Model the fold of this input.
Amino acid sequence: MGRRVAHPARADPGRPTGRLCRRDRQALAYDFRGADARLARLATAGAAGVADEITRQAQLARAAMDAVQGRHAATAPRLQVIEGGALAAGDTAGALDALLLRSAVALRLEGATPAQLLMARGDSLGWDRDPALAAASRCRWAAIRSRQGRRDEARRLARTGAALAADAGLRRQAAGCLFILATEFARSGLTDSLRATLVPAMDAQRAAGDLAGLAASSQWAGYYAITLGHFSAAQRYLADAWALAARAQVADVAAWTALNRAALALSFHDAAATRQWMHRADTLMRRLDDPTGRLEVARPPGPSRRSGWRQRRRAPAPAGGAAHGRPCGRAPVAAVGGGGATRPCHARGSWTRPRR
Done:
């Protein structure tokens, strides 16, 4: 077991630890511009010992913020470099943080198999060295197994991740694991189980101030309400998702919410609103590294799209969007990553993770 880093409340604001904790608070408040400005200074300020570790964490946090905002393709190679630097320095936990975020980006861009290979590398390094990594890794594996159709395993892993997070006092991570479990039930068409899981997840996200995670959950809830023909409920959920995504600057949720709102307008035979929301969805998807989203937007509106929605109502299997790329729906910086070092100041009220 290595040294412990100072508690943030006692950290000098002028020292790297103090500046990184202040970045963490800014990111949690969704002030990405302010957080990024401070991180940019830390990310190039490498020095011996703790400064090297903090520099890597700052680089990782910047990559995580870029991923949350939809810049996945540019993020992947940076994460590979960060992982390699951490391993070379003997910072195993830092390498695991990078692998966790890399797997989320790979799941979005390339699918389950590349993400699985990255997670297997983390398995060999040992996720259980840290409570946040232990919980987040189970949830990431749950998301991968859900994509692969391995339903029972996905549910078991999501529940285990939620329990580990709750035991460690990681409220956002626990809610994120419940979100993964809810999306798995949605893919299986298990409406009662979906509601019984998604509603507590949304309550937990709201209580924790996790706007990014709540935006994703609201988008999923709205989508699923459409598939069930509950259009009034869908309107409420999607309006919330749109507003929350804007506040949290979660680009992928905004894009898929716009697409869902176009489908909802089409259900009401509102051609003007359908065109308006499709235009917004198209504009947003073009900014994202989301090939699935761009293909969905390219589908022509009209009877074919409307019949597709009716088919999903009979056999719900939500196809992507926020859920595909939002494995831990939880802390903004961890919305794609979920690792411990990306959240050094709020992971149990203190930054005391032992480095091994």
Observations:
- The chain has 17 helices and no strands.
- Confidence is low (pLDDT under 50) at residues 1-23, 47-51, 302-356.
